C-alpha cells in the first residue's frame, strides 16, 4: 500500500473525493480505507496520505512514530497552517488545494461585480416595490463599460478576479501593499490607495489576506466616503470590516448595498441588523468550493501525485 485516506471526518473525506477519484486512487495506489486519529496504532507504512477538512492535528513526535515512511501529504482543501508544521519538521512535504479553492471564490466575486455594475442588487429590490421607480433609477448605474471597480488584495483570489475582469471593459483599481507599479502596468490596472478606491469606485470587492494588519482595516473613514449607489462585496474575511460602521452607513444611505459572504462573528449574532436591512445581501460562506466544486481540490491533489516523481 502506497497511500491512505487520513481524516477524522469520513463524511467530509467521502464528499470531497468523488467516487471516480476514490476508485482511481484505490486502483493505482491502494488508497481505500479512511483512517482516523483513533487508528494510529494500526496505520500501514505508507508514503502518501490524502485528506481534506477534518485532517487530524498531530504532534511532530506522533508523525515521526506513526508515519516513518511518509513522504507527502495531499490536502484537498485550503490553509494547512493548523496541522502542517508537525509534518514539515519531519521532512514531509505538504501540498494544498488552496489554488483550486480560489477558483470558485473568484468566479463568485466576478459575477457579483458584473451584476452590481448593472444595478442588479438595488434595482431588484426596488422593482418589487415600485417598478416605474426602478426603471427611473437605471441611469444611476454605470453598466460594464468603463465602470470603476476596486479590488482589495492581490493574492491568489484577488489576482484571479483581476484577470477575469480584464476581459471586460472596466477600469480596475487595486489596493495591495505587494502590488507594485510595474505589476499594475503589466496587468493593465491602476494601483490605488484604499481611500482612492472607496471615493471613486462603483463596486469594491475585498480579497485581502487574513492577517493582523488587515483586521478592522475597512472602517469609518472609508465607508464615510463610499459613493451613493455603490456596492461593497466581501468574500474575504469578516474581521477585516468594522461592521458597526458599515451598518451605520447602510442605515443612513439605502442606495448603498453590502453583499456579504463572510461576517464577524460568523454567523452574525441573532440580533444583528445584517439579517434585517434590505440593502444587505447575506450568504452563508458559499463563495468557496461547494457541491461538485470540491472535487476540483481533490483533482489538483491527484494531479500533483501523478505528475510529481518525488512522492511516488
Give your account of this protein's structure:
- By secondary structure, the protein is of the alpha/beta class.
- The protein has helices at 10-16, 19-29, 60-66, 84-89, 98-117, 120-129, 131-136, 156-165, 181-187, 194-200, 220-225, 243-252, 294-307; strands at 3-6, 34-35, 48-51, 72-75, 93-96, 145-152, 169-175, 190-191, 203-206, 231-234, 257-260, 280-282.
- The strands form 2 sheets. A 7-stranded parallel sheet has the order 8-7-6-9-10-11-12, with helices on both faces. A 5-stranded parallel sheet has the order 2-1-3-4-5.
- Strand 3 (48-51), helix 3 (60-66) and strand 4 form a beta-alpha-beta unit.
List keywords for this structure.
alpha/beta, elongated, seven-stranded parallel sheet, single chain, 312 residues, five-stranded parallel sheet, 39% helix, 13 helices
User: Rough shape?
Assistant: elongated
Number of strands: 12
Q: What is the structural class?
A: alpha/beta
Biggest sheet features: 7 strands, parallel
Q: Report the end-to-end length measured between terminal Cα atoms.
A: 12 Å
The overall pLDDT, averaged over residues, is 96
Strand residue content: 15-25%
Helix content: 25-40%
**What's the alpha carbon Rg, rounded to whole Å?**
23 Å
Uncertain ranges = none
Q: What is the strand arrangement across the widest sheet?
A: 8-7-6-9-10-11-12
Compute the number of helices: 13
Series of H and E elements: EHHEEHEHEHHHEHEHEHEHEHEEH
Amino acid at each position: 500500500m502506497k497511500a491512505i485516506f487520513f481524516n477524522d471526518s469520513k463524511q467530509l473525506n467521502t464528499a470531497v473525493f468523488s467516487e471516480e477519484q476514490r476508485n482511481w486512487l484505490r486502483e493505482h495506489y491502494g488508497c481505500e480505507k479512511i483512517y482516523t486519529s483513533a487508528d494510529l496504532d494500526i496505520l500501514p507504512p505508507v508514503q502518501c496520505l490524502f485528506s481534506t477538512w477534518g485532517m487530524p492535528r498531530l504532534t511532530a513526535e506522533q508523525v515521526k512514530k506513526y508515519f516513518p515512511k511518509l513522504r507527502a501529504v495531499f490536502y484537498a482543501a485550503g490553509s494547512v497552517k493548523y496541522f502542517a508544521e508537525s509534518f514539515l519538521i519531519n521532512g514531509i512535504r505538504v501540498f494544498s488545494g488552496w489554488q483550486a479553492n480560489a477558483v470558485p471564490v473568484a468566479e463568485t466575486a466576478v459575477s457579483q461585480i458584473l451584476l452590481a455594475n448593472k444595478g442588479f442588487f438595488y434595482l431588484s429590490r426596488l422593482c418589487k416595490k415600485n417598478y416605474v421607480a426602478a426603471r427611473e433609477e437605471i441611469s444611476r448605474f454605470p453598466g460594464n463599460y468603463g465602470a470603476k471597480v476596486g479590488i482589495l488584495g492581490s493574492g491568489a483570489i484577488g489576482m484571479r478576479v483581476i484577470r477575469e475582469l480584464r476581459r471586460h471593459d472596466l477600469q480596475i483599481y487595486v489596493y495591495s501593499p505587494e502590488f507594485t507599479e510595474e505589476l499594475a502596468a503589466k496587468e493593465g490596472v491602476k494601483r490605488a490607495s484604499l481611500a482612492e478606491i472607496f471615493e471613486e469606485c462603483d463596486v469594491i470587492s475585498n480579497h485581502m489576506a487574513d492577517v493582523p494588519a488587515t483586521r478592522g482595516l475597512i472602517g469609518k473613514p472609508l465607508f464615510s466616503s463610499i459613493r451613493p449607489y455603490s456596492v461593497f462585496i466581501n468574500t474575504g474575511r469578516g474581521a477585516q470590516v468594522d461592521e458597526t460602521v458599515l451598518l451605520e452607513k447602510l442605515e443612513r444611505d439605502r442606495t448603498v448595498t453590502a453583499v456579504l459572504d463572510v461576517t464577524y462573528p460568523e454567523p452574525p449574532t441573532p440580533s444583528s441588523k445584517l439579517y434585517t436591512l434590505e440593502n444587505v445581501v447575506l450568504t452563508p460562506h458559499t463563495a468557496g468550493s461547494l457541491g461538485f466544486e470540491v472535487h476540483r481540490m481533490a483533482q489538483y491533489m491527484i494531479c500533483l501525485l501523478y505528475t510529481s516523481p518525488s512522492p511516488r
